[in-house]
Design goal:
This protein is of the alpha/beta class. It has helices at residues 12-27, 47-53, 71-88, 101-112, 132-143, 152-160, 174-181, 188-195, 209-212, 215-229, 243-248, 265-273, 283-292, 306-310, 322-332, 347-360, and strands at 5-9, 32-36, 60-61, 93-97, 117-120, 146-149, 168-170, 201-205, 233-237, 257-260, 277-280, 296-299, 314-317. The protein folds into two domains: 5-173 and 343-360, Rossmann fold, CATH 3.40.50; 187-332, 3-Layer(aba) Sandwich (Rossmann fold), CATH 3.40.50. A seven-stranded parallel sheet has the order 3-2-1-4-5-6-7, with helices on both faces. A six-stranded parallel sheet has the order 10-9-8-11-12-13, sandwiched between helices. The mean pLDDT is 94.
Length: 363
Amino acid sequence: MLAPITHVLGARPNFVKAAPVIRALAALGHRQRVVHTGQHYDERLSEVFFVQLGLPAPDVNLGVGSAGGSHAQQTAAAMTGLEQDFIEHPPGLVVVYGDVNSSVAAALVAAKLQIPIAHVEAGLRSFDNTMPEEINRRLTDQMSDLMFATSPEAIGYLANEGRPVSAVHLVGNPMIDTLMANLDRFDTAAVRAGLDLPERYVVATLHRPSNVDDPAVAAGLVKALHEIAGVIDVVIPVHPRGRAVLEAAGLSAHPAVHACPPLGYLEFMGLVRGAAAVATDSGGVQEETTLLRVPCLTVRPNTERPITITSGSNRLITSAELASAVLKACDDGPYTGELPPLWDGHAGVRIGRIITDWLASDG
């Protein structure tokens, strides 16, 4: 019997990207294992996604989120657990997703055990090495045997880094697959009612260290959110890593700012779908708003998803521009441009076929 394909998942974006890939490989008859590192250990950031996305229950949960601490501690904990799992259950291929610590940890362990690696969402670059995710992306791609790109510019970046053209495949975006497959399940009215929101509102998500670790920076963002809330209600699902600093800055002091706990996938996308605009520092949200045609303002100096900028669905802004940019986007209305190539809901199927052919040819 062939060794299983092992998917390593650690955080919300991984689950959303993995669901269509796991489904496609299952339809092709592959034996698969799912290893959840537990990087996100809040139930609303992990377990609920497995249920809502129809993912198989993880074969093991390493619980590395409970290790807390630094990136090094989290990555080391994931590597230790993954090494033991890969030795006990040798994979024929390890599939990693995106740019979280769990992904680079899995790639490092697999490379040292001489297990082939496939990287879904390869070649994304912000060219900002102050972002831990940028380091994770570059290292993971250097170790990968198969690289699945979600947008054309990624192919050029990988070629510039010396990765073989034959190993790189433009497949589209599996996160978009999941979004399109669940459109009918996004109940904006129900989410609005549950959060006591009016018909028009803005969604904000802020969690990156550059925005929420420094109290002065966080205070500036909170001030901007209050300014927006003076015109249109703002709802912000508060990520655990930024909660204390944002609340200390007075996030909930404005009556039209609705701070809530993290939401499940269906609830969050229902919220985004009905928004007049979204302000974020998340990578995936930039893509999801593009498909949903909701104006996106990204509070960062750069993005690893430049195709959302060139397509016109997303704009990079500073914290000083946040209030004016969001209010203008609300007035301008929905994004009406073209969607990026191959964002058609079939990326998972393409990935499944390529992996099947690659394994059949012994890599």
